[in-house]
Amino acid sequence: MTVETVAGKPVLEARDLVKTYGRVVGLDGVGLQLFPGEILAVVGDNGAGKSTLIKCLTGAEIPTSGELFINGSPVSFKRPQDARDAGLETVYQTLAVSPTLDVASNLFLGREIRRKGFAGTMLRALDVKGMRERARAELAELGISTLQDVTVPVENLSGGQRQAVAVARAAAFGSKIVVLDEPTAALGVRESNQVLQLIRTLRDRGTAVILISHNMPQVFEVADRIHIQRLGKCAGTITPQSHSMTDAVAIMTGAQTL
């Protein structure tokens, strides 16, 4: 197996991850490295172990064996909140946004800011103005120009705008790593391009991004490296410069090996 190397220290590293479900092997000794300011795509056919790998990396599943490291330090995630506390945020395909809440409220969902003084400590009143100001600043920093009004309910937004809200929420709280699960699924060409630009912006800010996608043209457009899963194993890690889309599909299907 040929693995393209990247200079520097990985922000996230998995070594020999194994996940079994009874006699079914979901992951079979998978290794992965993710570096700061990098977009690492994870691709593979259905049943290749992509979802299981991501769940083990983000605390949704506990590996049967293997090791995880954040910035070189060993970690053990028992639940998704453990991963968030370590600076790893995940945006699932279902988005998990609250349609009836506005943009700012969704960005701070579960992390609401309370007002100072008696109103916040005793009456538990929220600092709505402060959250909206911070939401505008975060969206501007990410270059999201399609969300000018943070008071609009999310249910009134387009699919691409909802995806932007979910990604912005993941990036808004000092996350070292953002995992995106099929972020352009069910989006049109224009909205997909906006989401891809947002992913590039995250990378340019120094955030490490894991992108799970079936869309090979998009993967080759934005990814720095491509981790290919096959039958529960890592079949190889390539780059858009070293291999073509045809090569990637051949490796995925077993027609070509590294």
Give the secondary structure arrangement, pairings included:
Blueprint: E1 12-21, E2 24-34, E3 39-44, H1 50-58, E4 65-70, E5 73-75, H2 80-85, E6 88-91, H3 103-107, H4 118-121, H5 128-141, H6 159-171, E7 177-181, H7 189-204, E8 208-212, H8 216-222, E9 225-230, E10 233-238, H9 245-253
Parallel strand pairs: 3-8, 3-9, 6-7, 7-8
Antiparallel strand pairs: 1-2, 1-4, 4-5, 9-10
Organism: Micromonospora olivasterospora
Protein name: Mannose ABC transporter ATP-binding protein /fructose ABC transporter ATP-binding protein /ribose ABC transporter ATP-binding protein
Domain ABC transporter: 12-256
The name CATH uses for the topology of the domain at 12-87 and 174-253 is Rossmann fold
General form? globular
* Unreliable sequence segments: 1-5
Number of strands: 10
Cα-atom Rg, whole angstroms?
19 Å
Averaged pLDDT: 90
Oligomer: single chain
Q: Would you identify the CATH H-level superfamily of the domain at 12-87 and 174-253?
A: P-loop containing nucleotide triphosphate hydrolases
Specify the helix fraction band. Answer: 25-40%
Determine the strand fraction and express it as a percent band: 15-25%
Distance between the first and last residues' Cα: 5 Å
Q: Provide the succession of SSEs.
A: EEEHEEHEHHHHEHEHEEH
Number of helices: 9
Secondary-structure class:
alpha/beta
Q: Name the CATH class of the domain at 12-87 and 174-253.
A: Alpha Beta
What topology, given as strand order, has the largest sheet?
6-7-8-3-9-10
CATH architectural label of the domain at 12-87 and 174-253: 3-Layer(aba) Sandwich
Q: What's the story with the biggest beta sheet?
A: 6 strands, mixed
